[in-house]
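pinging the channel bc i need a second pair of eyes. not urgent but kinda urgent?? the chain im working w is below, pasted from the shared doc
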Amino acid sequence: MKQNAGQKIIMSGFKSIDDSAMAILNKMIATHAKRIGHLAKNLDNVHITLKEVHQREKSEKYEVHAKVVDGGRVFVSEVTERNLLAAVDNALSKVTSEMD
């Protein structure tokens, strides 16, 4: 589990992701976190969980759960995609639009 103290982001299930993909993910998550920070009234944390559903070569599926806790209010989303970046982006976009 990785926690980014400055932005209260908790990530779990990302250990097996290679460094180049994590660099892209971290930038994408930081962008979403900035938007969530603007929408939140009292942000407690953003929790992103990755679960690999199918692990066959060339047909992986990633299940991403995003949860934002904002002063007692909880916003959640779940996305299953073949593309990890799209899954994380869509999950965080859903949470952001729910907060909007």
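so The longest strand covers residues 43-54. and The domain at 2-99 is CATH 3.30.160.100 (Double Stranded RNA Binding Domain). — does that match what u expected or am i reading it wrong
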